[in-house]
Amino acid sequence: MRLAVIGPQNTGKSTFIQDFVKTFPHYITPAESYRDVIKRKKLDINQKGSENTQKVIRDFLYNQICHNQERNILFDRCVVDNYVYSLALYENKQASLEFLNETFDMAVKHLEFLDGIIFIPSAVSVKLVNDELRDIETKYIDKINRFFIKTLFLLHKDRPIEVFVISGDRKERLKLARDIFHYINYRLRL
Fold first, then answer.
1. DSSP summary character for residue 28
2. Structural domain boundaries, residue 24
3. Of 4-18, 87-101, 114-128, minimum mean pLDDT range
4. CA–CA distance, 55 with 105 (Å, rounded to integer)
5. In sequence order, which residues have a C-beta less than 8 Å from that of residue 146 and are 6 or more positions away?
6. Rounded (10°) angle between helices 97-110 and 138-158
7. CATH classification of the domain holding 96
8. pLDDT (average), residues 79-101
9. Rounded-to-5 percentages of helix, strand, coil across the chain
10. 141 vs 118, 126, 167, 179, CA distance in Å?
11. In 3D, which of 168, 139, 120 has the Cα closest to residue 17?
12. What is the mean pLDDT of the chain?
């Protein structure tokens, strides 16, 4: 299956992806992630971002999933994430409505290339770490989390896709991942 892990920053997505690939060795992740692009191009992100930086990240995420044809692959984020962060920028007049609508349309189209989404919502159990690639302001993270939930409901109207919510500590998250695989295998047999 082709899966993307999405959710607010500082929720343990990268750690989950590392644990997932170790537990399910038939899965791979792309060689480059959106973080590599942010570092290489020295992009301002989150609350400091702009429409231009979001476009660079969006286009990378879109192309990464559309052009990576591996069957068992786990992506770190997708255009849904980009839409959510662009929505926050739009709310603060840092992105245009035209850009926001274009990004939403790309997110809907982009879901055709995925079999499912693993959503990791914000949780108090994850220590907030300022590594210059994440925002650690809890009000902002909570707002982003609400935007993710709202966006997933909106997207489902246009393009139904399996959304799996993963939470808990590292061990619990991997147990939920195993449950997802059992569910998917059951669905494939129907």
1. B
2. 2-189
3. 114-128
4. 13
5. none
6. 60
7. 3.40.50.300
8. 96
9. 60, 10, 35
10. 18, 12, 16, 27
11. 120
12. 89
